[in-house]
């Protein structure tokens, strides 16, 4: 008679064999299903293409592959897992459109958001749960709400300009070199925190701030080996996000941001209960008000996760785009002069004026978003085996469809979509804001904010604050660049001096 121990061991063994067999069958059938998809041969058994994707110019391999293999490309990630890179316009519209909930974020990406921000809108999946969170955030980011935040955008812009004036005043020269990415980050975090819940990190006073440094350290990879391991492996082993120094940093930032958000939530709640209208200018108060009206009543932890998410989503992206706008103006002096002429009207324009009266400003920002998308890849994972329609059949086939097996990770490379010569012309790789004058209405839109039900909910907020800052800075300063600058892949795509490790953008700044 087998003992209880033997029985348990046999059951365990049978279970493990079942799980492993199921996994192997799934991997083999996925491989068979995708065997006709072209792509590069793997350069590393262990890392697949991750090493090259991480270390070479951001997005450069996606550009090469799609030029060579067409609009659907298969490549390997770490530990042999298969990734599909898709730029076919019909397939992309299908994946990010109404079917988005069948293509959730990959497990590793969700784990990252959960660990750093909590169970907010960037983490949540499922139509009903996501729509609930989106509905509660939406009233705080409507054009009317953004109008209420516009004075904050000008105040933080003026603070930044005052700091640069001080630097110039303290210099013997009428031209100084300023490291712009650091100031852009301070501007973006101060702005979003003030708009979100009237919290002033006061980073624009120029003093060091431990939380801001931790937040930056969390996502600024700066090509460290540890950041590479994390990026390469979290797809297959999401638990890697809990270990080591980075894991510790993740926990600390989450706790500190949570403490601030908690306090602000309580203050906003007191103001709401007292029917005070003073607080109506913050994103959190607008959210609470909308919830009270709808009777939805979000819990404290839900609101706190959402506030962390808003801070994080609105910080790095805006900071990167501000840096790239100033860089493009610095290396295009004639355009910078034309823009200065356009922005020469006195006083701060209203939001409506900012959005309607400055076509050069508009085109500079759109062209920057096109050539320097902050979020380079939009990642998804097929929740089930799904047949996706294609505009262009896979080479060698006539079937305008692609069957994507359950579990396959999908990457939509934004730079390839936004630099496709068939759409943007032979000069697609050049910064040419004029292409936005009278654009062809049939031309696909930018993908920098994504599209569909999960597209960026803060787009109008982001555009307004970037416009207000550009307006303020270009009126007061002129910019030049004497260094060779390249892109570096961090959480977002940042600038750095060519050949250096750390992200930075030193620009020469003068008063006008
Ligand atoms: C230039 C600046 C910005 C860019 C380029 C940008 C880009 C994006 C992109 C590409 C997504 C989709 C992400 C995905 O599908 O994985 C996204 C989502 C999101 N963004 Fe932004 N963003 C910017 C600024 C902001 C700001 C300022 C806020 C808040 C005030 C914000 C809040 C959000 C939120 C909450 C989501 C999640 C939406 C959802 O899942 O329904 N973003 N953003």
TrEMBL record:
Subcellular locations according to the entry: Membrane
Gene Ontology molecular-function annotations: heme binding; iron ion binding; monooxygenase activity; oxidoreductase activity, acting on paired donors, with incorporation or reduction of molecular oxygen
InterPro entries attached to this UniProt entry: Cyt_P450, Cyt_P450_CS, Cyt_P450_E_grp-IV, Cyt_P450_sf, Cytochrome_P450_monoxygenase
One protein family per Pfam: p450
PROSITE patterns: CYTOCHROME_P450
Amino acids binding heme: 456
Lineage: superkingdom: Eukaryota
Keywords of the record: Heme, Iron, Membrane, Metal-binding, Monooxygenase, Oxidoreductase, Transmembrane, Transmembrane helix
Swiss-Prot/TrEMBL cofactor(s): heme
Pathway, per record: Secondary metabolite biosynthesis; terpenoid biosynthesis
Protein name, as recorded: Cytochrome P450
Cellular component terms per the entry's GO annotation: membrane
Entry's family note: Belongs to the cytochrome P450 family.
């Amino acid at each position: 008679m087998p003992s209880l121990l033997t029985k348990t061991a046999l059951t365990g063994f049978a279970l493990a064999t079942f799980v492993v067999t199921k996994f192997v069958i799934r991997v083999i059938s996925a491989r068979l299903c995708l065997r006709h998809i072209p792509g590069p041969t793997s350069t590393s058994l262990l890392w697949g293409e991750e090493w090259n994707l991480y270390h070479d110019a951001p997005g450069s391999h996606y550009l090469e592959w799609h030029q060579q293999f067409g609009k659907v490309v298969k490549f390997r990630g770490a530990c042999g897992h298969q990734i599909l890179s898709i730029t076919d316009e019909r397939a992309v519209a299908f994946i990010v459109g109404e079917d988005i909930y069948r293509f959730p974020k990959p497990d590793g990406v969700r784990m990252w958001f959960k660990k750093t921000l909590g169970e907010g809108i960037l983490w949540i999946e499922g139509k009903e749960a996501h729509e609930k969170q989106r509905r509660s955030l939406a009233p705080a980011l409507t054009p009317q709400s953004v109008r209420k935040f516009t004075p904050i955008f000008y105040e933080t812009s003026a603070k930044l300009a005052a700091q640069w004036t001080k630097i110039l005043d303290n210099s013997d020269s009428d031209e100084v070199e300023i490291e712009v990415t650091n100031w852009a980050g301070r501007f973006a975090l101060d702005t979003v925190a003030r708009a979100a819940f009237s919290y002033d990190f006061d980073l624009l006073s120029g003093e060091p701030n431990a939380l801001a440094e931790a937040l930056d350290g969390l996502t600024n990879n700066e090509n460290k080996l540890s950041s590479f391991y994390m990026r390469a492996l979290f797809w297959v082993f999401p638990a890697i996000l809990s270990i080591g120094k980075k894991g510790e940093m993740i926990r600390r930032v989450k706790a500190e941001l949570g403490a601030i958000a908690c306090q602000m939530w309580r203050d906003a709640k007191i103001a709401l209960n007292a029917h005070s209208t003073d607080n109506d200018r913050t994103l959190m108060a607008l959210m609470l008000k909308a919830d009270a009206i709808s009777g939805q009543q979000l819990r404290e932890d839900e609101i706190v996760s959402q506030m962390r998410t808003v801070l994080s989503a609105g910080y790095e992206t805006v900071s990167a785009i501000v840096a790239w706008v100033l860089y493009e103006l610095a290396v295009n002096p004639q355009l910078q002069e034309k823009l200065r002429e356009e922005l020469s009207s006195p006083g701060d324009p209203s939001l409506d004026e900012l959005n309607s009266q400055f076509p050069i400003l508009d085109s500079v920002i759109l062209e920057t978003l096109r050539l320097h998308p902050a979020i380079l890849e939009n990642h998804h994972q097929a929740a089930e085996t799904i047949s996706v329609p294609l505009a262009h059949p896979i080479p060698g086939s006539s079937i305008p469809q692609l069957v994507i097996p359950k579990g396959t990770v999908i990457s939509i490379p934004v730079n390839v979509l936004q630099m496709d010569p068939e759409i943007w012309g032979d000069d697609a790789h050049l910064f040419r804001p004029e292409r936005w004058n009278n654009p062809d209405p049939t031309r696909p839109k930018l993908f920098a904010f994504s599209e569909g039900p999960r597209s960026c909910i803060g787009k109008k907020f982001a555009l307004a604050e970037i416009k207000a800052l550009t307006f303020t800075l270009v009126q007061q300063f002129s910019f030049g660049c004497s260094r060779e600058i390249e892109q570096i892949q961090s959480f977002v795509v940042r600038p750095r001096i060519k050949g250096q490790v750390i992200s930075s953008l030193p620009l020469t700044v003068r008063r006008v």
